[in-house]
Design a protein that fits this description.
The complex is a heterodimer of chains A (about 120) and B (about 350).
Chain A lengths: L6 E6 H7 L1 E6 L2 E7 L5 E5 L13 E7 L6 E9 L6 E3 L15 E7 L2 E5 L1
Antiparallel strand pairs in A: 1-9, 2-3, 3-4, 4-8, 5-6, 6-7, 8-9
Chain B lengths: L1 E7 L4 H5 L4 H9 L34 H12 L3 E6 L11 H20 L5 E6 L5 H11 L5 E7 L12 H9 L4 E4 L20 H22 L2 H4 L5 E4 L6 H15 L10 H8 E4 L10 H10 L6 E2 L12 H7 L5 H13 L9
Parallel strand pairs in B: 1-2, 2-3, 3-4, 4-5, 5-6, 6-7, 7-8
Helix pairs in contact in B: 4-5, 5-6
The chains are: A mainly beta (about 120), B alpha/beta (about 350).
């Protein structure tokens, strides 16, 4: 039986905006929060399913698409793992290049100067 | 049985020159060692050709249809033989694209007249001046009207890896005529080509035969995929010849892994590279690595890369490292034999394999 999810206070909005990310421990798991370019918060488990890297030390970048020889912004960003560059979608945690790889994602929001994660 | 790499030799140079435009004939006649083609830096210590074969009138094995019939087709029961230029393959490494275009045209006409007319089991390959891709495409359009040509033949040695967009016209022309493009290792570092592997020309033929030939095939394989060649030309099929095979699973694993991490560089690659390769590319078996008793391991690794459906048998007649078809049959896993000895080639080459057959 899985415990019901509840909101956790993982740090201050000021720290998140200054550092660009926050990492906190929730029920024994490391969870990271990152801000996208529009200022929205996204929370992930801080462990890459590929090789165990601290995923939330990675960078958010626009997802690119294109036809051979040309590039375009696909819309939306992806989190690039800092170790091997694998990409994970913000909403689903899915690695578009490998259906077997998925990182846990959590609802996150900023309220009254605090960063909250539902886990 | 289909043999996908049978090298035919220019034995009688004057007979060949009869196919060259009279306005250029004298120029080619004067070029040494052969027709202005770049020669190898080293020689095989006992000769590039099998010493047991009949040296024809030109002093070389494989110089006439009769020799190939007697020494390969009839004794081994070869049903179809893909004829691959020997020296002529390096036409794309000549400094002059104009001489290269003329030599390629003459070679293709010579192949039709002296070989394809001589035995219904022969299928031709079209050589092209790849240093001038528009001229190469024009030659493909011209030669492809003869349905007995079953592929376009490119040299492993090249100025740039073949995924570069400059080469697209020739790949598009091949696909338009439903011709696979065969890339055969050779001449890396010679003429106007780059050295294979980026470390400079090796000192020994031993080095080249171990690495040079394999590295160019690896480079073209990876380049074609990364540039999205098969997305640009969806009907394109490629055969990679004589680059070895044992490295293949490792390269596919590396490429798939790097694609996951570096896809932002080539975001048009929507599919895993190894999947694209299995769909569009096949490999010839010769020279299948000797494994010192580890054949089971080799075949297990090749299965992980998509074998047997990606493999075509090749003997490399009349070269010294010939793979005997009968021994290859014994060596292959039993359930691979039909696929490797014929079915993969039938699928790859399509209807042109049947053209002119008895």
């Amino acid at each position: 039986m899985t415990a019901a999810r509840r909101w956790h206070d993982v740090g201050s909005e000021g720290e998140l905006r200054t550092e660009g990310r926050l990492v906190a421990r929730i029920d024994g798991r490391e969870v990271g929060v990152l801000l996208d370019e529009r200022g929205a918060a996204h929370a992930f488990r801080n462990r890459c399913p590929h090789h165990g890297a601290p995923l939330c030390e990675g960078v958010l970048r626009p997802r690119l698409a294109g036809t051979p020889g040309s590039y375009r912004l696909e819309g939306g960003a992806v989190l690039h793992c800092p170790w091997h560059g694998w990409q994970f979608e913000l909403g689903s945690g899915r690695c578009p290049e490998d259906a077997r790889m998925r990182v846990a994602v959590y609802e996150a929001r900023v309220k009254d100067g605090r960063v909250l994660v539902r886990a | 049985m289909i043999d996908c790499d049978v090298h035919v030799q220019i034995g009688d140079r004057e007979d060949f020159l009869a196919f060259v435009d009279p306005a250029q004939r004298e120029w080619f006649r004067l070029q040494e060692p052969l027709l202005g083609l770049p020669g190898y830096t080293w020689q095989h210590p006992t000769g590039f050709m099998r010493a047991d074969l009949d040296a024809g009138d030109g002093g070389l094995p494989g110089t006439s249809a009769e020799l190939v019939r007697r020494e390969l087709l009839d004794p081994y029961g070869v049903d179809l033989a893909l004829l691959t230029a020997d020296d002529g393959i390096s036409v794309s490494l000549m400094a002059s694209p104009y001489r290269a275009a003329e030599l390629a045209r003459a070679h293709n006409d010579w192949m039709a007249a002296r070989w394809l007319d001589a035995d219904p089991r022969f299928r031709g390959t079209i050589i092209v001046p790849a240093q001038d891709p528009l001229a190469a495409a024009a030659e493909i359009h011209r030669a492809a009207t003869d349905p007995r040509f079953a592929a376009v033949l490119l040299c492993g040695g090249s100025e740039r890896p073949y995924g570069e967009p400059r080469y697209l016209p020739l790949f598009e022309a091949a696909a338009e005529h439903d011709l696979p493009v065969a890339i055969h290792s050779g001449a890396e570092g010679l003429g106007i080509s780059s050295t294979s592997g980026g470390t400079g020309l090796p000192a020994f033929y031993l080095e080249w035969h171990t690495l040079g030939s394999a590295c160019s095939i690896m480079a073209h394989l990876v380049s074609l995929v990364c540039h999205g060649t098969f997305e640009r030309v969806p009907g394109l099929r490629v055969l990679l010849l004589e680059g070895g095979l044992a490295w293949l699973p490792g390269i596919l694993w590396r490429l798939d892994t790097n694609w996951r991490g570096l896809k932002a560089e080539a975001p048009w690659l929507e599919r895993r590279p190894s999947e694209v390769i299995r769909e569009h590319i096949a490999f010839t078996t010769q020279p299948l690595e000797h494994t010192d008793g580890h054949d089971d391991l080799l075949f297990e690794m090749l299965a992980a890369a998509g074998a047997p459906e990606i493999l075509c048998f090749a003997s490399d007649y009349p070269h010294w490292d010939f793979d005997d078809p009968a021994r290859m049959l014994q060596r292959l896993p039993e359930h691979w034999r039909e696929t490797v000895m014929g079915a993969t080639a039938e699928r790859l080459f399509g209807p042109r394999l049947g053209a002119g057959a008895v």
